[in-house]
Amino acid sequence: MKKFNAGTLVLICIFLLAFVVQAIGATSVDLQAIKKQIATCEASVKLNQYFVRANQSYLQRQISNSQILAGSYQRQLDNLPRNLLNNVNAVNRKLAAINSSCRKDLQTNAAEIARVSREFDALIEYQVLQKQIEPARAAVFNREIARLESLKKSRLASYRSRETSLLARMQQAKAAADRQIYQLKKSNMASRNSLLNRIQSVWSQLGSTITRINQLINRLYEQINRLAATISELEKKLAGNTGSDAGSGNDSDTGQTGQRLIGQLVCLETQKENRPVYTGEQLTFSLENLRRVSVTKTGTVYYVVDPAKVASWSWKAEGGSFDARRALESSLPAHRKIWNTADRAGWYSIECGVDLYGNGQLTATFTHRLYISQKTVLQPPASFSINIVGQSPIPGSLNARRQVEFTQTFTADTALTSTLTWLATPGKLEVNGKTAKWSLTCALDAIPDAVTVTCLSSFSGQNYRCEKKFELSKKAAEDEKDPAVAAKNADPEKILGYFEKLGIKIDNNFGPNGMPEFWTREQLYYAWKTVTSLPEHFAAPLKTLKRVASFGGRSSVLGYVMVGTPTVYMCDSSTRGYHFETTLVHEMAHVWYFEKTNLAVKEAWQKAFYKDGRLDTTKESPVSVYGHTNLHEDFAEACRIYWENGPKMAETSPLRYKFLREQVFKMQYDAPNPYSKEKIYQP
């Protein structure tokens, strides 16, 4: 519809007015025409007014409809939170019902698993007991067979002899009866009646005898039947044992049919506590009740498999990572693994493969599936800090090899629950949450001034850090003074304690002064100092040191060893001059050389410097005249020179020097050993 406004009507009226003014004076015909035009305009105005009213009514209805629709929308918006809440509550109720059902199912499954486990345990106990009883039972059966065989023979012989005797008596009775009948024919009536009575008596005895024989025969048959039944039962039992043993198979035979592995892969934490698992946790998995099932003709036999005898284990998981150690650094058995759970919630499958026969193939694979829930993250407090607590200065102690050992346990004083990262310079750390065990081993003359310990943490996008220095005590727990300075006044037990820490026994009788026979304090000290100057692996085979006067009265012998005995004997002659330390190194080289674990090095030495059992001097000669004696003395003299003056040996005997550095000592002396020139005097 077309809409006219008031402005349009005014213009029309002005137009008409102008037209009227111009037409004044016109003729009446013109006036009539003007009247018609005015009427037409009035009609047009009325029509426009009608259209205006119609449009107003239409717009009013549209506004009313819009208001109604807006109200409906508003009511829907008002009801939306309530509907959403109802939907959420409905979903929560469904989830609660599902969780309750799952818990019931889990409880039912756990009960069923426990029942099956008890049945398996009972079956295994029965099988083990049966395995223990069967040999004894077989022995009993064997004895029973032997007894029955013996009884059968004795009883049959007895029955036969008794039967023969009864038959003979029957023959005698028959002969007597025949004689009586013959006499009866010749006798008179009275005597005949008497004889008839006697014959009847004889026949009655004969019938009784026959009855007894039948009874004996029946008893014999009963014994024979019992023996046959017993033998048959024994054969069945023995056949069953043979079948079980055969069914157990050979563990090295992977292709044997009728065998399989059974077991249960469990999470120890959830099994014991029946609790949910959260992200970021450490869980211990174990393969329990591992059994080998053997199917034989006589039945199924279950054998317990010792996890320690499994060749190898293969652990896998869909997420997370495996760690072979617990958080407290204690070792786990091979059939157990620490699994660091994934950081995302969801279902995860853990897999354990078993290589039972050591052929590189998995005999069986076991799986365990569990759900990991998202762990709730706690927000840190508004103000936060980390403080490292520990003793300062840190004390140290001397070890057996004259090195200083430092240990200290640091604690992080913090409310942070996130993972803490520990750093230490120098030294190493063993971290366990908010505590860290620090350790450092260094030479007595190389103690650092301090150790710097750092503790870091990141939480909710914010980083926290603490760094502290802890001084190290320059004074060791034991005396810093050289025992040789006041050796005559040193405590013998203290000097002997040095050797005990090294695992070496001083094998001598002890005198009134507390010192071992033949030994002086100086000799003991320098012996200890010489041993500790050598590499640990080189000194490890030595177990006993002993002082003797001589070797069979020969004063030229400085020291000696017995092949296969980890003992070094130091003679009086070694305590004169500069021979004490070098003699000890020479004899320790013999002990190391004859150690079974060093057989490969012994053979390599012979191959390198000897040809066809003889010394090969084409490449290099021994380091000393005494080294030409034999293969063993060549090696011992080379070790002595290597320890006494390695740099000089590198120039004079480079091949032997290289061999000892790489395969024996595995270290090098950059300067002449100062201990090799110490002078030890005999008291």
Q: Which CATH class of the domain at 487-677?
A: Alpha Beta
Helix content: 40-55%
Number of strands: 23
Rg calculated over all Cα atoms: 56 Å
Percentage of residues in strands: 15-25%
Name given to the CATH architecture of the domain at 487-677: 3-Layer(aba) Sandwich
Shape: flat
Cα separation of the termini: 141 Å
Class by SSE composition: alpha+beta
- Tally of contiguous helical segments: 12
Question: If you had to describe this structure to a student in words, what would you say it looks like?
Answer:
- The protein is of the alpha+beta class.
- Among the domains are: 261-373, Immunoglobulin-like (Sandwich), CATH 2.60.40.10; 387-476, Immunoglobulin-like (Sandwich), CATH 2.60.40; 487-677, Collagenase (Catalytic Domain).
- The chain contains twelve helices and 23 strands.
- It has helices at 6-22, 28-186, 189-248, 268-273, 492-502, 521-533, 536-539, 580-593, 599-609, 631-644, 646-652, 654-665, and strands spanning 259-267, 277-278, 282-296, 299-304, 312-317, 321-323, 336-340, 346-355, 364-373, 387-389, 394-398, 403-413, 421-425, 428-432, 435-443, 450-459, 462-476, 505-506, 544-547, 559-561, 567-570, 610-611, 614-615.
- The strands form five sheets. Strands 10, 11, 12, 13, 14, 15, 16 and 17 form an eight-stranded mixed beta sheet that branches.
- A hairpin with a 4-residue loop joins strand 11 and strand 12.
- Helix 11 (646-652) crosses helix 12.
- The N and C termini lie far apart (141 Å).
